[in-house]
């Protein structure tokens, strides 16, 4: 058991309403070896564990929005938001916030995320050459971290991914993906899955491709069969009827989560038929090309299979369970040191608006930073900056590792229900996904329930602000955070 810091104690005593203070003097931070004066023009705590600052660096000049979230605090929660709860399409961040508001979760802040698709661009139907990379929402894999035909340059060896565990740790690093289907009772035994909610090609690889589909693809959308044309581009193959399709349902008591085996029961097996749909089922497996369709066809109705999608965090050398995740184009700071990706790609070295996600060295605090390249009507011109300058600003406030995300007109921070930065376009763009910070309203808990055994994926707190590393063993009254639900729990003898 460990005691929270004095600053956290003070923060826990605050109401969930924002309080704003103006800085009385300028401070300095270092960018590219030079000291720059900055002023905190706004500092607020919109929820327990959440801090928002607006910074002004007048001589640079830069306008910076910085959000810090203590993931060990039960008063807040961070989730991936996906446009319209889909693996495709776009949505305004403010619209997503309204849609995700509930009795237990109140959105307080959010930002844009992945390099997917935004207003003004065509949605590539097969996502060819667009890095729709890792996205996990509430444990469900929305899109995979591309390892095959859709790599962003070096793929996982370059992409900066952000993953949040069920017990409130955040990792920002290179993630090495492994997606496997374990098939007890079959000759094959195990197969690797190549794509999630994307097209499946019969000719991309001599071994064939195996794709998975879930509700984020859409229950009535036909599975996407694709081929490679003479220009090495993917096109939808509407007439193909060469796949094996298997429909499955989650077993009772099973839940989606990265980093663990998830058990399903086979409900239907189809071979060499036109593309089908997910329907009311939880998972579809589609194999095309090579030997994979025949291997998948070894499954029979009633068979149990185990799906596992895991991501090894390179620096920590672990494959934790991951509940929320998004991915950017590059890891630009690692353990306080700027990486080569700040300078080996023009997109990162150029002067631009910026969005970045980072974490503290102890992996308990999430940092979200948005820097403008625009003229704000109140705070004046913001020149924009490189990713290295973004990293140095974030590092000054305690960030240790950082990934770069979509910038330009997509660089947006929502705070208090509106976009608070001045974007490069007159109207904030609709974008594809990001992370959203919620207030759980933990301080208003009145109900008490009885509990005996602590759930393996819960966060536990005493009433006076002590955080448990594990589960409470002594009888007493505790606060338990289980996903979005926060409850007082009475544990008896």
Task: Describe the secondary structure blueprint for this structure.
Layout: E1 2-3, H1 6-12, E2 27-31, E3 34-47, E4 50-57, E5 62-70, E6 76-82, H2 93-99, E7 106-111, E8 135-137, E9 140-143, E10 161-164, E11 170-173, E12 175-182, E13 190-192, E14 195-196, E15 200-201, E16 209-213, E17 225-228, E18 234-236, E19 244-250, E20 262-271, E21 283-288, H3 292-296, E22 304-313, E23 324-327, E24 330-334, E25 337-338, H4 346-349, E26 354-359, E27 365-371, E28 373-376, E29 380-383, H5 387-396, E30 401-405, E31 413-415, E32 418-419, E33 433-439, E34 448-451, E35 459-462, E36 466-467, E37 476-482, E38 485-491
Parallel strand pairs: 14-16, 15-17, 34-38
Antiparallel strand pairs: 1-36, 2-3, 3-4, 4-5, 5-27, 6-33, 7-31, 7-33, 8-9, 8-23, 10-11, 10-23, 12-13, 12-22, 16-21, 17-18, 19-20, 19-21, 20-22, 24-25, 24-30, 26-27, 26-30, 28-29, 31-32, 35-37, 37-38
Model description:
- By secondary structure, the chain is mainly beta.
- It is built from five helices and 38 strands.
- The strands form eight sheets. Strands 2-3-4-5-27-26-30-24-25 form a nine-stranded antiparallel β-sheet. An eight-stranded mixed β-sheet has the order 13-12-22-20-19-21-16-14. Strands 6-33-7-31-32 form a five-stranded antiparallel β-sheet, covered by helices on one side.
- β4 (50-57) and β5 form a beta hairpin.
- The two termini are 20 Å apart.
- Residues 1-24 and 452-456 have low confidence and may be disordered.
> What Rg is obtained from the alpha carbons, in whole angstroms?
23 Å
Neighbour order of strands in the largest sheet: 2-3-4-5-27-26-30-24-25
Number of helices: 5
- Morphology call: globular
Mean pLDDT: 87
Helical fraction equals under 10%
């Amino acid at each position: 058991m460990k005691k929270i810091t004095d600053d956290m104690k003070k923060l826990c005593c605050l109401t969930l309403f924002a309080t704003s203070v103006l800085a009385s003097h300028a401070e300095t931070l270092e960018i590219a070896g030079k000291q720059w004066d900055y002023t905190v023009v706004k500092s607020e705590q919109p929820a327990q564990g959440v801090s928002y600052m607006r910074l002004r660096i007048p001589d640079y000049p830069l306008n910076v929005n910085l959000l810090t979230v203590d993931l060990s605090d039960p008063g807040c929660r961070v989730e991936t938001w996906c446009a319209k709860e889909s693996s495709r399409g776009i949505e305004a961040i403010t619209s997503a916030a309204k849609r995700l508001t509930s009795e237990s979760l109140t959105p307080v802040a959010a930002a844009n995320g992945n390099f997917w698709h935004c207003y003004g661009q065509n949605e590539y139907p097969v996502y060819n050459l667009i890095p729709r990379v890792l996205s996990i929402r509430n444990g469900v894999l929305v899109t995979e971290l591309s390892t095959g035909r859709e790599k962003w340059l070096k793929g996982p060896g370059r992409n900066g991914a952000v993953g949040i565990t069920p017990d409130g740790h955040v990792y920002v690093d290179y993630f090495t993906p492994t997606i496997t289907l374990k098939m007890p009772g079959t000759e094959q035994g195990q197969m690797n899955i190549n794509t999630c909610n994307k097209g499946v090609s019969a000719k991309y690889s001599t071994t064939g491709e195996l794709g998975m589909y879930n509700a984020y693809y859409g229950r009535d959308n036909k599975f996407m069969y694709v081929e490679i044309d003479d220009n090495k581009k993917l096109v939808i193959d509407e007439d193909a009827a060469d796949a094996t399709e298997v429909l499955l349902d989650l077993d009772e008591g099973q839940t989606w989560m990265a980093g663990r085996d998830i058990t399903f029961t086979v409900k239907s097996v189809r071979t060499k038929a036109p593309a089908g749909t997910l329907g009311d089922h939880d998972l579809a497996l589609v194999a095309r090309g090579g030997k994979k369709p025949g291997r998948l066809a070894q499954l029979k109705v009633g068979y149990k299979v185990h799906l596992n999608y895991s991501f090894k965090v390179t620096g920590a050398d672990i494959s934790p369970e991951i509940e929320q995740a998004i991915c950017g184009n590059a890891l630009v700071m690692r353990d306080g040191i700027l990486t080569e990706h700040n300078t080996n790609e023009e997109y990162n070295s150029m002067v631009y608006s910026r969005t970045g996600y980072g974490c503290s060295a102890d992996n308990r605090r999430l940092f979200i930073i948005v820097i403008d390249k625009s003229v704000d009507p109140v705070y004046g011109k913001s020149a924009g900056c490189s990713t290295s300058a973004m990293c140095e600003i974030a590092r000054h406030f305690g960030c240790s590792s950082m990934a770069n995300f979509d910038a330009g007109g997509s660089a947006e921070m929502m705070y208090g229900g509106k976009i608070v930065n001045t974007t490069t376009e007159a109207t904030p763009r609709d974008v594809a996904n990001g992370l959203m910070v919620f207030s759980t309203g933990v301080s208003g808990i009145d109900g008490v329930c009885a509990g005996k055994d602590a759930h393996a994926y819960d966060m536990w707190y005493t009433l006076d602000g002590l955080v448990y590393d594990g589960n409470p063993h002594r009888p007493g009254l505790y606060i338990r955070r289980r996903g979005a639900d926060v409850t007082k729990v009475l544990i008896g003898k």
